[in-house]
Amino acid sequence: MLNFLSDVTALKVNSDRLYSATHDEIKSGATTDIYFINTRDVLSSVGMLDTEVTAEIFTRTTGMFAGLAEVLELLKDAPVKIEALPEGEYFSPKEVVMRIKGSYGAFGYHETNLLGILSSSCAWATAARECVEAAGGKAVLSFGARHLHPAVAPVMEAIAVKFGGCAGASCILGAKLLGREPAGTIPHAAVLIMGDTVKLAQAYDAALPPEVGRTFLVDTFKDECEEALRLAEAMKDRLGAVRLDTPGERGGVTVELVKEMRYRLDKAGFNKVKIVVSGGLNPTRIKELSAAGADIFGVGSYIAHAVPMDMTMDLKEVNGKPVAKRGRLPGILENKRLIKVK
After folding, report:
1. Which of 3, 29, 94, 276 could form a disulfide with 243 if both were Cys (CB 3.0 to 4.6 A apart)?
2. What does the mean pLDDT of the chain come to?
3. d(CA 159, CA 147)
């Protein structure tokens, strides 16, 4: 643990590595802001590092609470008491979402980490749930790992599924953390290398076990509807779904395209083949495409790029006495929704 400034000065880091922090580095305080370590030196010098305090965390926006499990892991060995909202519940602006009681020296240096975990986790959970609700019971898959640094992508995917309600995640580690198998099929690269969508589908069908879904992109070489019908004729009942990921240069995935795709598949007797749509989806587009006949939605950037919520941690008691900085109300703010979690 980085207890004091001298520990920070003595810390040697090999730059020939991935820049992401290891779990041990996070727990040691290496990812916190330096002024929290400076504070430990100052308070220790006057014998006040272990002052008993109560801290409360809130944000100014509405959202879904998530990230508690990682906070508890971070503070697992700290002698503190924690109350928090249950994960998956919505909070209102300025509502206290977490309260921590204990020695300031036991957890104060983790303020940066605590707020970072909660700010991102709540944002991802909120964005994912918006998409799930827009889908109205149809499956939403989290495809956002490519939009984030790989160190945090699994966290986002796990949050999107566990609390956002997504039906699955494409990131292997993100899914495995939840005890699930990752969801996904093939990239355009495979079709381009094979040179033909149907040939790729047949090779895929022969190479992979039956429990892996048979869903194939149909926008690589030909008209999407033409390609979908070629696939359906070749694969018959082994084809589970076709995926539309038409780029913006070709007009993107439109309501009209989905409607035509559904009509042509049904007309040809392939009404069981589902339509998966992806590419820049958001709640509004999900509603529109769902009404047009889309069955499954692959969402990436809307969840991954959710703006982190500005979480704030304030000390509200020092040695049992109400305190607050100017502009804030001193003392504990009652919230009967908080439950004891540690």
Report:
1. 276
2. 95
3. 15
Residue 73 CB neighbours (<10 A): 13
CA atoms within 13 A on the CB side of 49: 17
311 by Cβ neighbours in 10 Å (0-12 / 13-18 / 19+) ranks as buried
Q: Are strands 52-58 and 321-322 parallel, antiparallel or unpaired?
A: unpaired
User: Is the per-residue pLDDT at 141 higher than 90?
Assistant: yes
Please give the full DSSP string across 209-268, using - where no structure is assigned: -TTS--EEE--SSS-HHHHHHHHHHHHGGG--EEEE---GGGT-S-HHHHHHHHHHHHHT
| Beta strand residue intervals within 71-183, DSSP E | 80-84, 90-91, 96-103, 139-142, 168-169
- Tell me the sheet residues that pair with 80: 102
φ, ψ at 229 (rounded to 5°): -70, -40
Which amino acid makes up residue 118? L
HSE-up of residue 38 (Cα within 13 Å, Cβ side) = 3
Query: What is the arithmetic mean of pLDDT over 290-314?
Result: 97
Say whether pLDDT at 184 is over 90: no
Phi, psi of 252 (to 5 degrees): 70, -175
Stated pTM of the model? 0.94
Phi, psi of 314 (to 5 degrees): -115, 140
Phi, psi (degrees; rounded to nearest 5) at 312: -125, 135
User: What are the structure tokens assigned to 70, written together?
Assistant: 């990682």
In percent, how much of the chain has pLDDT > 90? 92
